[in-house]
Specification:
Helix content: over 70%
Radius of gyration: 12 Å
Structural class: mainly alpha
Largest sheet: none
Number of strands: 0
Strand content: under 5%
Length: 97
Amino acid sequence: MGLFDNVLGSLMGGKVGDILRADCPQEVLPALEKLLADSEAVKTITAYVQDCMAGAADLSVEEIMNLPFKQAVADVLKSNPQLADHLVATAKNKLGL
């Protein structure tokens, strides 16, 4: 199993919240908690990151903003654009994307 597989395994194993919280700016943390409270949103983001790792998608803020989220999650992202920035930065930092 490669490094990316190990990290992604950790993300999927329930540690995604811990990893995302670790370097999260204080002002973004409430929005992040709302996102993490929605298990479907977490699954959607995890699947997207897997696609990025496989080369089937490009990691970008724009792509995250356009993922098929419930309206409440989409609203959180739209009202907190720094959240999408944080998601992308964390994926790039932790997974080398």
